[in-house]
């Protein structure tokens, strides 16, 4: 965030008015430097801090300077039922599911445009995929973004292939259910989620429109045996985020503190 303000990049967390002003940008940089310094002093007093990802762990260690007292504990997800679902499901109509609130920091338009590119490159003998956006709207601004997405789908001539769902969750969209993820090549997905499992690829990472489109096409073109291998590896990887794993990691993190306080 500090580098973004310093570079005067306008984004959802750096207002355009501030980004366009040298004076306001400098004031914001000074504010963040001071805030980071205070945050580091307070954080360094903690006996234990639990973080939910490798990226956050690296960031907090850098700010607080207490690596031995910062433990990574992944948030719990109920994957037990999903891992009982069969993987051998024929892919008659490939479905790409995007799950996220319709918020400005989510790259929904990029995903929609990548899907359009993939459709244009799709081989004639392959099944035509569908794109489903599943999310929620917090306010009127989110509703406007959702409508803009629908309008963009019409402009791209893919409205028949795109579906929008608000406040709806699917059972079959998780890695634990055998879904192959295409995730943004940053932070959590890159460092924790879409990693190899016993040498087997578990999904795809992408950043540009072309990379997303290529990943979509690669999954659709993938032989069924290869897709099932990747889905099985993704399911095993998802076990690292299970409720049971959370209980084990949480107990391991707090045990030294409990032993110390009982003395």
UniProtKB/TrEMBL annotation:
InterPro entries: ALG11, ALG11_N, Glyco_trans_1
Transmembrane regions listed in the UniProt entry: 29-50
Keywords assigned: Endoplasmic reticulum, Glycosyltransferase, Membrane, Transferase, Transmembrane, Transmembrane helix
Subcellular localization, as worded in the UniProt entry: Endoplasmic reticulum membrane
Main location: endoplasmic reticulum
Domain ALG11 mannosyltransferase N-terminal: 1-64
Domain Glycosyl transferase family: 88-172
Membrane topology, as annotated: Single-pass membrane protein
Catalytic activity, EC: 2.4.1.131
Listed GO CC annotations: endoplasmic reticulum membrane
GO MF terms, alphabetically ordered: GDP-Man:Man(3)GlcNAc(2)-PP-Dol alpha-1,2-mannosyltransferase activity
A Pfam family annotated for this UniProt entry: Glycos_transf_1
Biological process annotations from GO: protein N-linked glycosylation
Annotated catalysed reactions: an alpha-D-Man-(1->3)-[alpha-D-Man-(1->6)]-beta-D-Man-(1->4)-beta-D-GlcNAc-(1->4)-alpha-D-GlcNAc-diphospho-di-trans,poly-cis-dolichol + 2 GDP-alpha-D-mannose = an alpha-D-Man-(1->2)-alpha-D-Man-(1->2)-alpha-D-Man-(1->3)-[alpha-D-Man-(1->6)]-beta-D-Man-(1->4)-beta-D-GlcNAc-(1->4)-alpha-D-GlcNAc-diphospho-di-trans,poly-cis-dolichol + 2 GDP + 2 H(+)
Pathway as given in its UniProt record: Protein modification; protein glycosylation
Name used for this protein in its record: GDP-Man:Man(3)GlcNAc(2)-PP-Dol alpha-1,2-mannosyltransferase
Organism annotation: Nyssa sinensis
């Amino acid at each position: 965030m500090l580098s973004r303000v310093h570079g005067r990049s306008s984004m959802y967390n750096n207002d355009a008015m501030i980004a366009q002003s040298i004076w306001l940008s400098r004031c914001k940089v000074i504010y963040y430097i001071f805030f980071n310094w205070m945050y580091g002093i307070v954080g360094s007093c903690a006996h234990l801090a639990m973080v939910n990802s490798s990226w956050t762990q690296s960031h907090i260690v850098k700010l607080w300077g207490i690596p031995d007292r910062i433990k990574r504990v992944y948030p719990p997800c109920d994957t037990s039922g999903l891992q009982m679902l069969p993987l051998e499901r024929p892919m008659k109509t490939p479905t790409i599911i995007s799950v996220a609130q319709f918020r400005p920091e989510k790259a929904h338009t990029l995903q929609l445009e990548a899907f359009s590119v993939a459709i244009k490159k799709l081989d004639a003998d392959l099944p035509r995929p569908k794109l489903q956006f599943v999310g929620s709207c917090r306010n009127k601004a989110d509703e406007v973004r959702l409508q803009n997405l629908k309008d963009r789908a019409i402009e791209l001539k893919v409205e028949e292939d795109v579906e929008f769902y608000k406040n709806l969750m699917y059972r079959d969209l998780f890695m634990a259910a055998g879904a192959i993820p295409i995730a943004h090549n940053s932070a959590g997905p890159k460092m924790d989620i879409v990693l190899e499992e016993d040498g087997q690829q578990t999904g795809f990472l992408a950043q540009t429109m072309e990379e997303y489109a290529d990943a979509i096409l690669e999954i659709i073109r993938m032989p069924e045996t290869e897709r099932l291998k990747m889905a099985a590896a993704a399911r095993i990887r998802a076990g690292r985020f299970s409720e049971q794993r959370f209980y084990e990691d949480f107990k391991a993190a707090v045990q030294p503190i409990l032993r110390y306080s009982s003395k």
